[in-house]
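Session log. Operator J.P. requested a structure for one protein chain; no other inputs attached. Running the standard single-chain path with token output.
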Amino acid sequence: MHDANRRDWARFAPDAIPTKTHVQQLERWLDTRVAPGARVLDLGCGAGEIARGLVSRGFGVAGVDLNTAAIEHCRRSVTAARFYQRDVAAVGGLALAEAPFEAVVCQLVVSVVGDAADRAQLLRNAFEVLRPGGGLFISFSARSDDLNEAYAELYARDFTATQTYGTYLSRDAQGEVLYRTHHFTEPEARELLESSGYLGVAIEEAIEASSRRPDQRARFYYATCRRGM
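Structure written below.
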């Protein structure tokens, strides 16, 4: 994980981690593609809202996150799951005794994990802990400059620093830089998944409230795919 992103995500208070608590695309995928009682990994679990929902559906759940305080919070509040402090983009992998899993869920983490190398490593780590044929549900923050002028301004303002249009520097209320955020195009998201070895990639677009700017619109991609045999 890019060093700045590691540092900033590690120091978030659990209740300050941006989280979508209701993801209808995920619920539909779980209903139709994941067997009852399957082992599911929440990759980048944050404060455990997704993990809690997975447990309520009867899945065997493990969660990983870089943030130690978030992991401690999850262990207290979602006692039916197991949680581990891990860098989701660690070059050495995730080292989870429960692997392989029947499914992996990764909600928006790929957009804030760091640079292109970190994004690719996250996908490799997810691939390695999936059983052959196992499914991945992953969501991407998407390019939104055509929907929201504020994003167009962010992309342009930070291009000198990031050298990638669509990547910008997320800031706190005082304007201090927190971490890099990358907004994907649909072809870019698809190519990343397919180049990481995933099959049957399907991507659904949605226009929703921004995770950190709930009064603003943004585009998201919800992708499903599977590990090859």
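Operator note: The mean pLDDT is 93.
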